[in-house]
């Protein structure tokens, strides 16, 4: 075994210690429920779906009856919209636990992927999972409190929280990826990589890896066999598998941001020198974290910039939340902006490689 990993506090223990999210003041019936029903319909309209999701999050429990119906809808796109909204709700949403659990095992990979975010949100309490590349740690931020989950991971670049509480970590400085169980024990690893920058555990159990130093993206199974790869003009920093089966890759220099189909054909591209994170949003637009430009962009399929958030540090990762807030991490800080672009929270972190917000903040 290369290096030494120590569990300082388990993922499960960190979640158990969090305070309960306060229930928003809202009336679950009457006008609120009628408004929720109308907004749930608007989720199907690309030009309205992000705004509709933001308004639905503000309605709280009034949304639940409609979400329950959507979560059993036979159309995958309807279920995915419901899961996105569910990941941004506060208050008493316990009734969603079993429907979301069932979605985790859904045969449609897009539903299973969306269910993972909703599942983490159920108990996340607005905490933010972060890799501190400089400190070699995986930490959980709860407001301004920092709780160490894993330490002694040289150049920890990325972490993927699994649904059983395990953590899958890209150890950039050791050329391997490692899975830790809830007791902090290594239960699986894959070596032979060069500067792995990002990892994603897929619904089928395979793992998608941005093998940056080897200029490739690979998909490996549990037996460590390579089952898919892409290595044309990429130096991948971030990688995501989309619901349609395509793969979204953000590279340092090289091809910029590309979407490739399973056969390796590029179906969309955004030319850039240093975009370190790319997320496909519910409406089909793409969120780009431009490190050199110190900004986050939302762009559409026709390469139009729909919104630009200026950031006052070199940013590496960003996440647009269902409530319209933007969380950004990078050199020295994690910052949250509200929908209007006003900063509502900031905390110091050495150097953020990856972040993920779980649930609704208590602020």
Quick structural overview:
The chain has about 375 residues and is of the alpha+beta class. The protein is built from 7 helices and 23 strands. The chain is globular.
Question: How would you portray this structure in words?
Answer:
This protein is α+β, with helices and mostly antiparallel strands and 363 residues long. It has two domains: 93 residues, Alpha Horseshoe (Leucine-rich Repeat Variant); 234 residues, Neuraminidase. A seven-stranded antiparallel β-sheet has the order 1-4-3-2-23-22-21. Strands 5-6-7-8 form a four-stranded antiparallel β-sheet, with no helix packed on it. A four-stranded antiparallel β-sheet has the order 9-10-11-12, with no helix packed on it. The chain is globular and about 60 Å long. The N terminus is likely disordered.
SSE layout and pairing:
Blueprint: E1 6-7, H1 11-16, H2 31-42, H3 49-59, H4 64-70, H5 76-86, H6 97-104, H7 109-124, E2 127-132, E3 137-142, E4 145-151, E5 156-161, E6 167-171, E7 176-180, E8 186-190, E9 196-201, E10 207-211, E11 216-220, E12 226-230, E13 236-241, E14 247-251, E15 257-260, E16 266-270, E17 275-280, E18 286-290, E19 295-299, E20 305-310, E21 315-320, E22 326-337, E23 343-358
Antiparallel strand pairs: 1-4, 2-3, 2-23, 3-4, 5-6, 6-7, 7-8, 9-10, 10-11, 11-12, 13-14, 14-15, 15-16, 17-18, 18-19, 19-20, 21-22, 22-23
Helix pairs in contact: 2-3, 5-7, 6-7
Strand portion:
35-45%
Number of helices: 7
What is the subunit organization of this protein?
A: single chain
Could you say which overall geometry the principal axes of the C-alpha atoms support?
globular
CATH architectural group of the largest domain: 6 Propeller
Q: Estimate nothing, just give the exact number of structural domains.
A: 2
Counting helices, strands and paired strands, the structural category is alpha+beta
Low-confidence segments, given as residue ranges, are: 1-27
The main β sheet shows up as: 7 strands, antiparallel
Supply the CATH class of the largest domain.
Answer: Mainly Beta
- Strand arrangement within the widest β-sheet reads 1-4-3-2-23-22-21
Query: What letter string, H or E per element, gives the SSE order?
Result: EHHHHHHHEEEEEEEEEEEEEEEEEEEEEE
CATH homologous superfamily label of the largest domain = TolB, C-terminal domain
Cα(first) to Cα(last) distance is 42 Å
Question: Count of DSSP E strands?
Answer: 23
